[in-house]
Structure of Cytosine deaminase:
Amino acid sequence: MDSVLFTNIRPHDLLVVDGRIADPSTRPENTVIVDGGGALALPAPVDAHIHPDKTTWGHTWLSRTPASTLRELIEGEVKARAGMTASVAERAGALMDSAVARGTRAWRAHVDVAPEYGLANVHGVREAAEARRHLLDVQIVAFPQLGLLTRPGTAELMERSLGEGADVIGGLDPLGIDGDLHGHLDVLFGLAERTGAPLDIHLHDGGEQGLAQVREIARRATGTRVTISHAFCLAEARELDDLLAESNVALTTCALGADPVLPVGPLTAAGVLLAAGSDGVRDPWTPFGDGDMIARAHLLAYRTDARTDEELAACYAVAAHGGAALLGLERVDLKAGDPADFVLVPAASLAEAVVDRPAPLLVVRGGAVIAREGRLLERSPR
Ligand SMILES: Nc1ccnc(=O)[nH]1
């Protein structure tokens, strides 16, 4: 039996037996003791929306050109990618290492699929993830960034990607990009029904046009688990909250710059499943981001004007519990039986951690210490 006691930590010591938190009164012989230096244990967070095939993380700085519309961003990216010299696996892998050292336990990665790229981006991200299976769980969404109906061949590639490293079928603004709500959703839900894969649809479209699409997605999402990512149209409009809570639809938000952010309090109170993510990190779309989900919980709190300890904690819960639920991972509450996936941070309380966004002193995955003071440890033979 593999047994480790993390002691001198708050809110209480954690005994880990064979990768799970165990009842501390049953400590096996030969338990290894790790001193946590008085730090606070938190469930490891989940990045439920990141674009690792686009990142330049760990490689040459990219200077961005002005872009004011989604189309300009998409077109600028196609050009910028052509100049990237490091491979997808190298760039995505560098970002994975950094995110893991900052405590992230799992990713849902949106990865571009298009006739121009074939499945190279999916293969690259999967290769990086395979090399880090002991560090991070990675789900890949086959994402039609350049359009679905408007880029013939994309749907076929997305279906093929499911056998080659992808797990989820993506979508993108059925009206705003493809100009055909029912045509776009027919393809996505058709793929989901045939393959059993869940859906995750980017929806930037705002206002009534956005809300009409949310209604139609919720109406169709009976047998299929669907995530709507960004859902800017729901930032201010609360009239669909009950519908969403009763549906098979979850939401992700990224709390980016000037983009609308989904309100944590009202959505959580209504019972809507909400998770958070980094979105693009240091890529042709944005110079910002770092894959740190403790810092993302801070941005979510800042953008939603959190003040009370409860409001600050709720933002961390979106990153940790919302993300775990969205990815279908076990929830970590630091109680006996839970997976031993946690971080130890130098903070007096969860609220203080969300405000201070400290680098974890230790990152623990399945009971093994995998990072210390913001740095990955060399892989230890087990
Ligand atoms: N926020 C976004 C990042 C990347 N691609 C998108 O379509 N949207």
